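User: I'm preparing a small set of examples for a lab meeting where we compare how different chains pack in three dimensions. I only have the primary sequence for this one, and I'd like the structure in token form so I can line it up with the others. Please keep the answer compact; I'll paste it straight into my notes.
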Amino acid sequence: MNETHDIPDNPNEPERYEIRFQGYLGDRWADGFEGLRLNQEPDGTSILTGSVADQPALYGLLRRFRDLNLRLISVIRLEPQPESPTEINRTQEGCQ
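Assistant: Understood. Below is the structure token output for the 96-residue chain.
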């Protein structure tokens, strides 16, 4: 169990997560996870993906799973998404 985990450079920057849980959420409940994309999988699980502001916000999401009595399967921190070519070009133009 000697796994190493990369610690983000700035813990106050939002990070992307994938949260998998058993079952499906109705629209009424899914609205409570604003800013996260919900995918319902054919195997009976659902995945919430998106940015979470900070660690307290992540813990708040996990409390919501507990409060809804949802069976949590996994929580994975995702690598940052690469910038789109348009964003890269804008950044380079601003440097000239």
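A couple of notes for your slides: Residues 55-67 form the longest helix (13 residues). The CA atoms of residues 86 and 92 lie 10 Å apart.

User: Perfect, thanks.
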